[in-house]
Amino acid sequence: MRTRGTGHQELYMPLSLLSLVCGRPVYSGRVVGGQDAVAGRWPWQVSLHFGQTQVCGGSLISDRWILTAAHCLKGWIPFLYTVRLGSIKNDQSSQSVNHRVFKIITHPQIQHTSADIALLKLVSRVTFTSFILPICLPSITKQLKIPASCWVTGWGTRSLLLPLPVSACEKLYNPIGPALPELESVIQDDEICAGDILNKKDSCKGDSGGPLSCHINGVWIQIGLVSWGIGCAESLPGVYTSVIYYQKWIKTTISRAEVLGTKNLDLTEFLYLTVLLSLAVLGPFCAFGPNILPGE
Fold first, then answer.
1. How far is CA 153 from CA 36, 86, 90, 243, 250, in A?
2. Is 208 a catalytic residue?
3. Tens-of-pLDDT digits for all 296 residues of the chain?
4. Set 63, 116, 196, 207: catalytic member
5. For this structure, is 207 an active site residue?
6. Of 40, 55, 100, 237, whose Cβ has the fewest other Cβ atoms within 10 Å?
7. Is the model's pTM score more than 0.85?
8. Which of 49, 71, 99, 107 is catalytic?
9. Which residue among the candidates 47, 96, 208, 242 is catalytic per the annotation?
10. Using CA atoms, how far apart are residues 206 and 43, in angstroms rounded to an integer?
């Protein structure tokens, strides 16, 4: 718990306590044909927007933190991004809410595909409802027995997928690899594969950053996030950043940020407040110029 200067007490829910509410949707009805039966089936699914444009998916993992893919974040200015929670459609609904992003933390070893993972800290804490709940993260101390099938969710698809051994996935993407030992592996140690090759189901454009979730011992646990693939369900499985691989980084980063946030204003927060002041005084065009879109 931390106290603001106004005397208002703001509760910080440690990740350890989230296990009491995470991964347990209030509605647990069946999913038919790869589509949601009703809203609230995947209450941790979020939509990441840059301005008015939906760019990626993500998952709610606590009352103030979003997990997504690093390649989704082309711009470094946090407040240009918003996160929509509580909706299974791209448009706003009565159950959905929008939250602005306060801080972007990408993995320090991010490369072309490796370490494709990022954390977003929201400006304000999320109020949990039957439509908005966090998903559970894997436990650092327990070895997960991943079931035969898991779900990938997003706006491009909602599909039941089969997690594949890395060796099998490597053969599909790099069939000549074993014959050329010096050839670098396509699938990295921090990646996992999943797909329904027979029925050609896979994650697709717009799903990046979204969760690959498995129902384990009565709760939903995120084991991966959509990273990359070739096309959409073109007889190749999708490749996902392994949340299991980065679970320690996720929990350490959040804990450190929450502790530092109670003591002092860091550089990111200072820049955020400076940008807001510039916008208020100068307007967006004068503050940034005309070219503020990602990649431009």
1. 10, 14, 13, 15, 21
2. yes
3. 333 333 333 445 655 677 788 999 986 554 444 454 467 889 999 999 998 888 899 999 999 999 999 999 977 789 899 999 998 666 666 778 999 999 999 999 887 668 999 999 999 999 999 899 999 999 876 777 777 678 888 875 556 666 666 565 655 555 545 544 555 566 778 888 887 655 555 455 557 899 999 999 889 999 999 987 655 545 677 789 999 999 999 999 999 988 876 555 555 556 666 666 676 666 555 545 444 444 33
4. 116
5. no
6. 100
7. no
8. 71
9. 208
10. 18
